[in-house]
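Narrative of activities, Objective 1.

The group set out to show that a structural description can be obtained from nothing but a protein's sequence at a throughput compatible with the screening campaign. Below is one input-output pair from the validation batch, recorded exactly as produced.
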Amino acid sequence: MARNVIESDVDNTDELRAADDAWMVRTLGETVTAGKRTQEEADLELVEYRRIRAEREAHRASMTVDEQVVELLAQMDLNPRLDLDGGGTVWGCECWWMPEAEFNKFLGSRTIVMAPEPERGGAE
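Output recorded for this entry:
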């Protein structure tokens, strides 16, 4: 499956790059509108974002498909699937997560807020 993902990305790199860029422009624009950063700061951040993305793309282009598959699988391991006690699933990128043994230490005097599982649009 990971190999299929890598090989399919080759066919639509420009489309993915355009969608990614549009998302970042929109997100930065929202932070400017909300007063969280100036337009100049957003413009500089967009330039840096594009530079980092270009470096990543160049690095990937220098890798074999097998190397890209290994990298993808390693990155997926950093985004674990979390099965909720009440049913459902969230992914590591959708929440703060940590081993249970560390949780009480982290919690301290913080208040736990129970939140519903995120709504999904389509297949997981």
